[in-house]
Amino acid sequence: MPWPLAFVLTIFAPLAAINYYVGRRLLDAIVEVFRQPRQKVRWILTLTLVYLNLLPVVFLISYLLQGRTSAVAFSGEILLVDLLLTYPFWIALIITVQLFLLFALMEGFKLLLFPLYKSHKVRWLARERYILLVASGVVTLYSLITIFADTWLIRVTEHTVKLPAQYSALDGVKIAQISDVQGDARTTERKLNDFVEKVNALQPDLILFAGDVITSGTKYIEQTAGILQDLRAPYGVIAAVGDHDIFAGKSKVLQALHTSGIKVLEDTTIRLSLRNTDVNLSVVTYTYGRRPDRGDLEQLPIGPGESYRLMLAHQPAQRLVGFAAERGFHLFLAGHTHGGGIAFGIPGLFLVAPATFEGPYVSGSYRLENMIISVTNGLGFTLAPVRYHAPAEITLLTLRK
Asked: If we measure between CA atoms, which residue out of 239, 278, 280, 283 comes closest to residue 257?
C-alpha cells in the first residue's frame, strides 16, 4: 500500500470524529441563529462533509482496483483530481481541525470559569451561537489566507550568525540555505524558476542545499536539476542527499546534479577558503534509509580545530545535532521537516505538527551549547499539497563578528 494512502487512512477515523463534533456544533448554531429547519441544515452539512472527505475513499477504491499504479493519479499529475478531491480534502482538514481546537478552547474556558458560567448560563447560551459562528468565520478566513500565502508564496528568512572573535574575517559572508525543492507536478517549473531567482537575488557567497531534489519517480529529475543549475554563488552550490533522492533513484539524482554543476557530498569534509579563512564543511548523509551510528560518525573527518566548522545534513536528527555540538561545530544546517508542513494551533502560543514528534528542531534557528542550528522549511511537498503555518522558505544566514 502506498504510504500516502496508509497515512490518510490512519487519520481517517479521528478525522471523522472531529468532523462529527464540529458538524454538530455548527448545526446547532446555524439552526438557532438563522431559524432554519434542523433536518434541512443537517442534510446540507452532512453532504458537504462527505464530499470534502471523499479523497481517502476514492484513493482506497482506486488502489483496490488498480494497485500501486493508482497513486500517480493522486500525485498532482491529474489537475482535475487535485481540484475536485485533493485540495478540498486538505483545506477542509485544516479548517475543521482549527475549528475543533477553537470549540475545545471555548469549552475549556467554560470549565475553567464554571462558577461564573453557571451564574450567567442563560445569558451566555443566548449569545454563544452567535459567538461560535462569528469565530468560525474568522478562523475559516484566516486559514484560507494562511494556506494561500504559505503554499504559493516564497518567504525569505534572514538570520545573523554571531562569529567567534577569531573568525572575524568572515564578517559579512552570506550563506543561502535551501532544502526540499521536490520538483513534481505541483512544484512547477515556474515555481522553481521563481525560487532560483529569489535565491540569486540575495547574492549569497555560498549556497548549501540540504537535499530532496524531487518527490518521487524519475520524471522530474532532469527538469528540476536543469533549473537548479542557474543557482549562482562565488563559492558554489554544495548539496547533501535527501530521503526522496534515495527513494526516486539516488544515482540518477546525483548524476543530474553533477551535470548541473552542483557538488553533492556524502560523509566527508571539504576545506573552503572564504575571505582567506579556513572553513571546513562536513556533509553527512542522514536519512530514513541511512542513519549512521556513533561509530560511523566517529569516522567522519572534521578538519583541524582552528577552522570554522559547518555541518550540512538532510535530517536535523537530535543524535546527529548532538554529535556536531560535541565535536565543536559552529553551524549545523538541515531541512527535511518542511517546517512542519501543516502545523495546527495558534501562532505565538502553540503549534503542533507531525514533524514535532520526530525531534525538537523543526523550523528556524536554535542553539545547542556553542553551535547554531538552522532548519529551513524548503519549497515543495511530501504528502499534503498545501502548507499551513510552515511557509515555503529560503533561509539566508549572514555571518557577523
From this structure: 239
